[in-house]
Amino acid sequence: xxxxxxxxxxxxxxxxxxxxxxxxxxxxxxxxxxxxxxxxxxxxxxxxxxxxxxxxxxxxxxxxxxxxxxxxxxxxxxxxxxxxxxxxxxxxxxxxxxxxxxxxxxxxxxxxxxxxxxxxxxxxxxxxxxxxxxxxxxxxxxxxxxxxxxxxxxxxxxxxxxxxxxxxxxxxxxxxxxxxxxxxxxxxxxxxxxxxxxxxxxxxxxxxxxxxxxxxxxxxxxxxxxxxxxxxxxxxxxxxxxxxxxxxxxxxxxxxxxxxxxxxxxxxxxxxxxxxxxxxxxxxxxxxxxxxxxxxxxxxxxxxxxxxxxxxx
Length: 313
Ligand code: HEM
Fold this sequence. Notes:
By secondary structure, the protein is mostly helical. Helices cover 53% and strands 8% of the residues. The chain contains 13 helices and nine strands. The chain has a three-stranded antiparallel β-sheet. Strand 2 and strand 3 (134-135) form a beta hairpin. The chain binds protoporphyrin IX containing FE. The site of protoporphyrin IX containing FE (HEM) has 22 residues, from helix 9 and helix 13.
């Protein structure tokens, strides 16, 4: 919701935590979390993959990065889910505002703790950061923590859950990934394209813009429907076919331009490692019932993903 030059200055600050090297260094930790979560249900022979795996992997990773203590993670997760699940069309603005306010309050407390004692986390780094010699305002600090926790939680959860469902619907493609895990990164791109976790985001035009022969006047709020662009037959042959071997040159699941997803490398790491670990332990699984979609304007998300498989040690 911010334009340059302030957007660039703030984005550059936090980009330091998302450099290729920093993200690569996180791989062993992401893998350890994924294994620990799978240990929790592998021997049982059934689980809700969304509740027990997809929901926790991103939240633990981003929580540890920002510096959310483990015992407060669940509260953040619940608030994020309430916000994403709330529909702006319902006319009940409080359904979004109340959990958002709770996230701000919780971060205000954590930032106070960090002011007293720094740790090796993003909150401490942001408190020490300077733009033109000035530290960040409380509003900017809270805004950062808020956007990172909200952007970092739910979208990646849905990528993992939606992808797992796609692989249940297409067992032959799942077997290809089991046999050749080097195909997983491209499969993740196809999952992003086919069931884009972030379906739509708003923009306001600052000047008249022509789009396919239609002129949108200045000052107009428009919705960018990334998910529709990702099924555009001018860009993707047979776009409604899920194909992990598709040659995906570009999709819009992570946006485009100056606001392109800051967490792109992180979510790609989480999804690759998540599917590597899941398919190595549970190569064959079936849906217990067809999962139901959540009713949401912007999130492509299931309510749950119950699966059954042969128990493994
Ligand atoms: C599958 C997972 C994800 C999806 C589908 C996704 C999608 C997107 C999209 C579409 C945008 C563009 C917003 C716009 O143009 O208005 C965006 C921006 C952003 N994403 Fe992600 N994202 C994901 C994961 C993450 C993660 C893990 C983080 C990191 C914590 C993150 C942080 C951000 C931030 C900070 C922005 C705003 C960047 C800016 O305005 O400069 N995202 N994301």
